[in-house]
Write a structure and sequence with these properties.
The chain has helices at residues 3-20, 37-41, 54-68, 76-102, 104-109, 112-124, 132-138, 143-174, 177-186, 211-230, 235-242, 246-249, 265-271, 310-336; strands at residues 43-47, 50-53, 192-193, 196-205, 254-259, 283-284, 288-298, 301-302, 339-341. The chain is of the alpha+beta class. The protein has two domains: 3-180 and 313-350, Triger factor/SurA peptide-binding fold (Orthogonal Bundle); 196-298, Chitinase A, domain 3, CATH 3.10.50. Strand 1 (43-47) and strand 2 (50-53) form a beta hairpin. Helix 3 packs across helix 4 (76-102).
Amino acid sequence: MMSFIKRSAFAAVLVLSVSLTQAFAADDNMPPLPGTQEYGKQVILRVNGIEFTRGTYDSNVNNAIPRMSMHKAVSDERKEKIRQAVISDMITGELVAEEAAKDKEVVAMVKKKDVEAAIDALVKKLPEGMTLKKLLKNSRMSKDDMRAVLRKDLQAKRLNEKMSKKLIEQADKTVDEAYARDYYQKNLAKFVEPEQVHVRMILLKADPSGGAVVWSAVYKKAKELTDKARGGEDFAKLAGEFSEDEQTAKKGGDLGWQHRGSLMEELDVVSEKMKPGDVSEPINTLYGYVVIKLEGTKPEVQRKFEEINLGNLKTELSDKLSKTLYDGWIDGLWAAAKIEFLAPDVDITKKK
């Protein structure tokens, strides 16, 4: 239920990153060359009059890429999506912070001790060789400036928490049995029990690197088992005696009832063409040869509303509704704001 809070908290944290570098805003409107000092000072975004620099944006992108890509290689397309997400979060972070500053209850939540604790936490995270004094000097800020930045950040987080709680409660109150039943009626396809198959199998393993001779010998043994089962011998007994899959061999090769499509692909393809009682030819798989018997099938069934776990469904629907309500709140902040994209590469309105 709280998953969407993480996104907003990330945006609020960006307020700190953004504000710490506000002093680098450029006065010159001419687009500077990449790699120059002035390039980092270029104002690329303005939100309700608050300016954001190229340096701030690049820093946030560089921090976001390894985190959002799990430190794996990132395609150009993925990088572009991350850049757009960073711009979006920078805007959202500023708008939430501004909204928080208007909320007297939220402002009162953030005490002086909270701000000082945030400074202490920030100092502990500084890289080796960096001190608070150096950070302030590099950022062209006083300690009071930093306190203001941190207060703004904390207020934004408190507002996120307040709104999240409010909207979750609103969603929980809205999603009753009638709401769930209406959703069920409009989404019947989501409540269909897929076709099921009951399969037994015999696995004869083959060394993947064993070559044609080894695989041919295993195939021959598997074919003999197919012929025995088709000749009337008990498949379950054959599986118990010959199958090299220990877990299922103990159960006569029984895989139980499985949804169609949930078996190993090679087995699934073959089983689709079988009728109950049929025994397959040996099936080549990554592990060796498999012989299967189709014991039975169950057609797909439309589940009745009364058969559904109502508690789980209500929780799922409440999660979705609270997310929708939260996104609506954020959309409202965007709609009421004056947002100016001052560089083509950050104008996300032209990239949707």
